[in-house]
Amino acid sequence: MDRRLAHSDLILKFDMEKAYDRVEWPFLLFMLRSFGFSELACSKSCLEALHDFLLLYQEHFGQKIDVGKSAFLAPFSISEEHCRQFALPNQILVALGRICNSFLWDLNVDSRRVYWAAWEKLCFPVQEGGLGVCFFPDSAMAFACKSWWRLRKRVSIWAVYMHRKYIKDTHPSITMMDRLPASWRRLLAVRDFTELRIRWCLGKGLVDFLYDIWCGDLSLAQELGVSNPPHSLVVEFFTSQGWNVPLLREWVPEFVVQRIISIHFSPDQDDAMVWVPSPNGDFSVASAWEEIRQKRNVFFVDRYVWGSIVPLQLSKAGYGCSTYFLEEAVAGVANTDASVLNGRAAGGGALRDHCGRAIFAYYKEFGELEVLEGEAQSLLVGLRMYAKREVRSLIAESDSQVLVQLVGSKAVSKWPLCIVLREIRHFLSRMNASLLHVFREANSVADALVSLQLRDQRCYD
User: Fold this and answer.
1) Which is more confident, 163 or 60?
2) For the whole model, what pTM was predicted?
3) What gap in Å lies between CA 80 and CA 292, rounded to an integer?
4) I need a labelling partner for 406 at 20 to 30 A (CA). Which of 164, 201, 238, 352 fits?
5) Alpha helices in 389-452 (DSSP H)
6) What is the pLDDT of residues 378-395, one digit of tens each?
7) Where are the beta strands (DSSP E) in 63-167?
């Protein structure tokens, strides 16, 4: 090639090794299977047609297929892992519910029977009149919350990738983009819900000062109504002697400063994410589902309908009868509550029908009473009002377990509480009513009425 050289030329031809030449093919096959592909056996005619197509492809494009590195992969049925990692279309979730309902009520695939209840009405705990199964959309949302939790912890390759690809230099709670991929839309659907249930236990202080929730039940940006605040880490407000109070006062009001300086931090430890609904602070799908799902009042009949010792056919019949005749059997559910503030007791309550619709509510103050006496007086006032309105077959609920036990045990009790208890028992017997204990979360309506502190008696029809 170069005529000035005295010796013959030497030509070197290199085939540069590319990334796909160094990859481990078993790993690629494993990843394809994880994303919903598997080897599928086809008929002889299908394989011959595919073979002819590949030969035609090589002839026209001048490329040769490496048979040793090739495999035939096809989509397969939906698995539980697929449901956890990807958002299923609503049409599939609805179809799954219909299949489950058909399995429960129909004799076989050819005969259809009367459905006593829709599938979504059965997706409740047994104590609330359900089958103890989860509603598919609620489960999908709970798994999406798990994905957001893992994104915020940043302990996986996927979380690091999502931060670098979509979040970048912004905070996850305010990240916005024009063209949203499906994976990010799934996370956005649960972002606000999940963020409100995440708290930060301070260690090194590498959490956002305004956007993360670390000194209350809301982020400081939400609490103070700050729009587009600058990003700053909590560690920037630390000094070797403690909190930098002058700097804090430049950023937040004095009442927030006093709250912050009472918080202990440990610079020698890592910051810890805490999941509020969980007893141990770690995220669990069950606790997320419990926060997401719709809740119903607990009826004493429900816990006996679906039981392990009751045959399934009897349970079906019992559920149908209880659902059909509940409106006639139970006139309503009455919740009562009381509180003592500065030595003065106040009580309130609400009456709802079997569907949960409000019928009547009241509020009254009783003067200087103890908590138990206030609870009893509030219940008695409600029973008197319901009796005046000729309410029958009532279920009364109170979050005072002591009061429920006293009424049920028919104990005399102390003076003058014994007089109130005797009158409560009289009204319960006269109205064919029962008194049940519920937790405070199920008594939130009555609790909200008591907290009004209206200073005079009110009735809401």
Assistant:
1) 163
2) 0.53
3) 20
4) 352
5) 401-409, 417-430, 444-450
6) 888 888 888 887 777 778
7) 73-75
